[in-house]
Amino acid sequence: MPAESESNAAVCPACGGELATWRWVPASEPALATVRFELRRCARCRSAVTIGDVADDLHETGAYRPGAPRLHRAVTPLLQAFDRRRLTMLGVAPPARLLDIGAGRGRFVAAARTAGYDAFGIEPSTRGVQAAAAIGAPVRQTTIEQAQIPDASLDAATLWHVLEHLDGSDAGVEQPASWLRPGGRLLVGVPNLASFQARIGAERWYHLDVPRHRVHFTPAGLHELLHRHGFEVLRTYHVLLEHNPFGMWQSLLSRVTVHPSYLYNVLKRNAPLRSPDLVLTALGLPLAPLAALAELIAGALRHGGTIAVLARKQAGRLG
Predict the structure, then answer these.
(1) Can you point out the beta strands (E) in 115-271?
(2) Directed axis angle between helix 107-114 and helix 72-90, to 10°?
(3) What is residue 10's predicted lDDT score, i.e. its pLDDT?
(4) Distance between CA atoms of 207 and 193, rounded to whole angstroms?
(5) Which H or E element spans position 20?
(6) Main-chain phi, psi angles of 181, to 5 degrees
(7) Which of 34, 41, 170, 187 has the fewest CB atoms lying closer than 10 Å?
(8) Sign of the C-alpha dihedral, residues 233, 235, 241, 245?
(9) Which residues have a Cβ under 8 Å from the Cβ of 161 and sit 6 or more positions away?
(10) Max intra-chain CA distance, the chain
(11) How far is CA 309 from CA 123, 135, 221, 222, 278, in A?
C-alpha cells in the first residue's frame, strides 16, 4: 500500500526549486515490503524528496538494528582502508580538530584518532553510541540541531552518508558551517541520483533506501546547497570503492529478486537466508566483476553511484 503523501512538500531542500510527482518506489525494509513511497523531483537541480513519514525507530531497527553485521570481521581491513581514504580526501593534516557528524558506530572517529587527529563524533542513535563506546571512540549522543559545539572551533567535519537522512538539509549544512573556522573543510558523502546505477536500478536502486533516505541529491543540488551556506566546492569525487561497485551490483540484482537489496539485508541480519532470492543472488555472483567495471567507467565519466564533495568554508562567512 502507498504511504500517505504530504501536501506541503513543494520546494526542493537542495536548491529551492519546485517539486513535482516523479515515481513511487518500494521500501527497502523487508518488514515494509507492501509499502511504496512517493518521490517528488526538482525541475531545477533534479534532486528528489521522499514523501511520507519515517517511523521514529527505523534508525534503530531492521537493517539498523544493534549488533555486528555478517562477515564484519572478514571485511574489517577493507573498512579501515576506506577510512584512511576518507581522511586523505579531507586534505587536512593531524592534529586538526575533526568532527564526524552522524558517526554511527564510531569506526571513522577511531581511525582518525589513531592517525593523530583530535577527532570526536556526534550520533543520535543509541546503538551507534554504545558501539562507539565499546571501541573507545568519543561519540556524543545528540542531533545536529541540539549539539553544543562552539562556533569556529573545528578545522574539519564530515557528513558521510548522513545528509540524505535529514528532512532539514539546510540545518545539516548550516550548523557545521557555524562550527568550522574560516577555511575549514567539510566532506559530504551522498548517493548520486544522477548516476548511471540510479538509472539502471530505477525504482529498485540500492541507494534509494526509502523511507530512511529523505533527500536524493544530484551533484548540482548538493553544490547549490553548499554554496548557499557559504562553502566553496573544491572537488567532487565520483570514483569511490566504499559504496559504488557493490551498489551497482546490488542494483542489477534487485531488478530480478523479489525483495530489493536482498544481499545487503542478509548481511545486516535483516532478511532470511532461506529464500529464492538467495539462489538468484548466488547466480548473480559472476556479474560482480562486470558491475565493478561498469561502475569504474561510470565514475570516470562523472556519474558515480555515490559522490564525495569536499568544500571549504569561505572567509567572512558566519555559517
Answers:
(1) 118-123, 139-141, 154-160, 180-191, 215-216, 231-237
(2) 60
(3) 81
(4) 9
(5) strand 19-26
(6) -70, 155
(7) 34
(8) positive
(9) 102, 189, 190, 191, 243, 306
(10) 58
(11) 21, 28, 12, 8, 35
- The set of cell numbers assigned to 50 is 521522499
Q: Taking the CA of residue 257 as centre, how many other CA atoms within 13 Å lie in the half-sphere pointing to its CB? A: 33
Q: How far apart are CA 298 and CA 149, in angstroms?
A: 39
Q: Where are the domains of the chain?
A: 1-314
What's 1-314's CATH class? alpha beta
Cell numbers found for residue 190: 551522498
pLDDT tens by residue, 203-249: 999 999 999 999 999 999 999 999 999 999 999 999 999 999 999 99
Rounded Cα distance, 319 and 186, in Å: 12
CA distance 42 to 88: 33
List pLDDT tens digits, range 170-214: 889 999 999 999 999 999 999 999 999 999 999 999 999 999 999
d(CA 111, CA 102): 15
Three cell numbers, residue 193: 541520483
- What type of residue is 83? D
**CA-CA distance, 106 to 285, in Å (whole number)?**
31
Q: What are 250's three cell numbers?
A: 546490488
**Radius of gyration in angstroms for the set of CA atoms belonging to the chain, rounded to a whole number:** 19
C-alpha cell at position 289 = 566483476
User: Which residue carries 566483476 as its cell?
Assistant: 289
Give the three cell numbers for residue 191: 548517493
The C-alpha cell at 286 is 559472476
Grid cell digits, residue 229: 551556506
